[in-house]
């Protein structure tokens, strides 16, 4: 068997097509409950990338047949010693050395670009949960990577939401949130809130549990927010935001985001939720999430399930998600490799 690997970019449409087909096949086998691998999202990674990231791509062929690809994201504005990786091998061509060859190729590339560590994620089964291959964890361990942060994906079945209990939880929470007012929007953040959203977004990696992952807080400003929005627009992501405004100061002090991708109107991701530390203790996280759930479902009636990821140690946010009806599906591990 002969394995060849070559770097490529968005100008090589044949390589992009081949990588997409590999990703789609792997998604269907490894995560059958996920939305289909979105072609619009994948293409946008090449023509409208995130403003703060440079991406390197490589395609592996096994005896001339496209067999796997590697995506390396190199932060440009902060964390310039770091990178993240996604390594995907076609399900029919695994256990033939393709993953190992891509890994070795990627390590050489990252060292050439001065990176000192790389982080990648794997999925595995939870007790009593749906079957998941343990191959990703086993492979990561053989590379010398260290398990750095455990996460759990939870799913909310919209048809099983206990709306009576949810209304009761909101009624109990609202008296503790006097002096705060909810505001919601879709898509791009209104100019009056963009500076506050940038501040909250920049706090995310300061406040969220990061385990042993060596990742510094990101320096987020309005320009970076706008660049990220352009990238998400290109991917076809429909975004539903809810912010909580502190009436005395006029500032947005909490923010949450739900997103629906272009490939599946039945599925959404619960993404960022953050409350400014100075305004915690007022149940703003619960209020924001619950009200934004209503916001999403009003405009996206086809949504049937919502997925979210939390660090296993993030007991506060996990408790809110469990109260909303999210239930564990599978385990995700962040592996960190020193280069």
From TrEMBL:
Cite the SUPFAM superfamilies for this sequence: Acyl-CoA N-acyltransferases (Nat)
> InterPro entries from the entry?
Acyl_CoA_acyltransferase (IPR016181), GNAT_dom (IPR000182)
| Domain N-acetyltransferase, chain residue ranges per copy | 3-211
What Gene3D superfamilies has UniProt attached to this entry? Answer: 3.40.630.30
Mind telling me what this protein is named? GNAT family N-acetyltransferase
Q: What is the lineage of its organism?
A: Bacteria, Bacillati, Actinomycetota, Actinomycetes, Micromonosporales
